[in-house]
Amino acid sequence: MSAPLLEVAAVTCRFAGLTAVDAVSFAVEPGRIHGLIGPNGAGKTTLFNVISGLLDAGDGSLRFRERDITTLPPHARVALGLGRSFQNLRVFADMSVLENVLAGRHNRLKVPWPASVLRLPSARSEEKAAVARARELLAVVKLGDKADALAASLAYGDQRRLEIVRALATDPMLLLLDEPAAGMNPTETAMLAELLRSVRGGGVTILLVEHDMNFVMGLCDRITVLNFGRKIAEGTPKEVRADGNVIEAYLGAGDVARFLEGARR
Amino acid sequence: MPQWLDDFLWAYGSFVYGLGVNAILGLSMYAVLALGQLSLGQAAFMGIGAYASAVLTLKFGAPFPLVLTAAMVAPAIAAMIISVPTLRLTGVYLAMATIGFGEVMRILYVNTDYIGGALGLSGIPEKAGGSIIFGLLAVILAGFLSATRSKIGRAFEAIREDEDAARAIGINVGAYKLSALVVSAALAGLAGALNAHFSSFIGPNEYGFDTAVTILSYAILGGVTTPLGPVLGAVVLSALPEVLRPLHDFRLVFNGLVIVLVVIFLPRGILGLHTRRVG
User: Fold this and answer.
1) What is the pLDDT of chain B when averaged over all its residues?
2) Which site among A45, A46, A102 would you substitute to test the B interface, given the most B Cβ atoms closer than 10 Å to its Cβ?
3) Range of B173's domain?
4) What are phi and psi of A222, to 5 degrees?
5) pLDDT value of position B163
6) Quick one: closest CA in B to A52, which residue?
7) Taking CA atoms, what residue in B is nearest to A91?
8) How many beta carbons lie within 10 A of that of residue B252, not counting itself?
9) Cβ neighbours of B253 (radius 10 Å)
10) Does residue A56 sit at the B interface (CB-CB below 8 Å)?
11) Are A192 and A161 spatial neighbours (Cβ–Cβ below 8 Å)?
């Protein structure tokens, strides 16, 4: 069996007295689509922020590609192949769609800055290749014809896909997606599931937080469930659906309707 | 040089050179504002450059190119030092810290007899002519325009719009903020040296809070969507008092009025262009 791509070991994150993530451990195997679910306030986004390096893990450790990344700054984690999107839309509104994707390519552009300023041939050819790659990615998510539009002018679902493409432009091995389907209509959600399957098919492992249970249950190979910062269950979608702790957590948090709707399918 | 230009420069030389120097100061402000850092240390960095250059010229007779280089290196080093405690600050906190830095420098000048104390330094030879000032301005502006259209411009804009998102897509935000502050300080120092070498006098009170705000207003008026904005802003705000001579004492009121109107009606500046950031 191959080693896990990401290992989260007893990670804890506290905010002034509140323990948002409490000794959570799980592993993401390569090639999987791994779901992270839990009622509101369970600590999913906090955990994402710790994994991507925007927040420090107060305790515990993170290993990615068999390397300890617990203290690496975010940009170094991206360089290793950890990409992410955000729950609330965080596209760069004042940049064009193409520029957003190119910004995601930043870490892969290696020419030193004086070469960029002086427009040396090395910088020009690198920029040209980056633009070609960005257009390719945009075509995959059917945003190719909007490359020159301002990101702010895109429809909501398009902005969501743009954010995913921007993360894909970093050439990730593991893609963290925070509620990628939030606010999407059923057609858009189906399109997204299709996109994520093809991304996985391209060799990218995915870890996603999502509230849409149909989406999670239909897409994920494995699911980790958090509640009040603790891991309460883990397994295949089938196992998790049948887990007493999970049902109780959702019942207790008043999300029963949403959960049962997913469980019924 | 044709006769009319010669006559014009004889009468308006320091005014025209001032436009060029202020444009460089505008670009110095742009370097930090373009990634969203409200640093008000530009006047202080300008002062460091002015004093360093004046001392090298007056007391050591150093050649002018060396003087200009030192006038950029000295504030750049100062910027690296103050970046240690201030790099994590943003918004008004960074503004306050950098204003404090300016005050510290002013008091240092006033109390240092070697550099003339409160009287400042006078008799600085007029070595900075139009070709040097506008030649340097052209090179710097070309560099900024080119950088804007590369990965550097995209990184700056990404950091300005959303620092966390910039981090999450692999931009080394800390390194960019430090570089921006250092470049900004070096340019302000260069402007200070040029200014010292055409106005022939510098004093400790020229690099205080009001100068800092004036430099900021160049960028606000012109906008920071393109490096051309602060250059235009500097030219307009520096030229207005001359154009508005008939208004006498009310000239500066008009300056203030222009800025207020721009902030309210043109928040992206009078040059609110959208810049392409693809090379």
Assistant:
1) 91
2) A102
3) 15-208
4) -145, 145
5) 94
6) B168
7) B165
8) 12
9) 11
10) no
11) yes
Cα B246 from Cα B225, distance rounded (Å): 33
Strands A230-235 and A222-227, by their bridges, are antiparallel
Q: Is A73 on the interface with B (CB under 8 A)?
A: yes
pLDDT at A28: 97
DSSP state of A66: T
In a domain, B232, yes or no: no
- Distance between CA atoms of residues A224 and A4, nearest Å: 15
Q: Mapping DSSP to helix (H, G, I), strand (E, B) and coil, where does residue A154 land?
A: coil
Q: From the centroid of its chain, how far is CA A154?
A: 21
Residue given tokens 């925070």 in the structure block? A178
Which residue is listed with tokens 């006769």? Answer: B3
**Inter-chain Cβ pairs, chain A and chain B, closer than 8 A:** 112
Helix or strand run (H / E) with residue A62 = strand A59-64
Whole-number Å distance between alpha carbons of B48 and B112: 13
Provide the ipTM.
Answer: 0.90
Nearest-CA distance B238 → chain A (Å): 29
Q: Which amino acid, residue B269? A: G
Q: Is residue B100 pLDDT above 70, yes or no?
A: yes
DSSP 8-state code for residue A14: E
Q: Give how many domains chain B has, as a whole number.
A: 1
Report yes or no on B275 lying in a domain.
no
Selecting from B167, B277, B279 the residue whose C-beta is nearest the C-beta of A124 gives: B279
- Chain B positions touching A137 (Cβ under 8 A) are none
Q: Do B279 and A127 touch (CB under 8 A)?
A: yes
pLDDT tens by residue, B112-171: 999 999 999 999 999 988 899 999 999 999 999 999 999 999 999 999 999 999 999 999
In a domain, B261, yes or no: no
Write the pLDDT tens digit of every residue in B189-243. Answer: 999 999 999 998 999 999 988 899 899 999 999 998 899 999 999 999 888 888 8
Q: Are A240 and A234 in contact (CB under 8 A)?
A: yes
Instruction: Check B161 against A92: CB less than 8 A apart.
Output: yes
User: What's the longest Cα–Cα distance across chain B?
Assistant: 59
Domains, chain A, with CATH or none: 6-91+171-264 (3.40.50.300), 95-153 (no CATH)
Instruction: Identify whether B172 is part of a domain.
Output: yes
Rounded-to-10 torsion of CA A192, A195, A196, A202: -170
pTM of model > 0.95? no
The strand pair at A6-15 and A59-64 is best described as: antiparallel
Pairing state of beta strands B121-122 and A230-235? Answer: unpaired
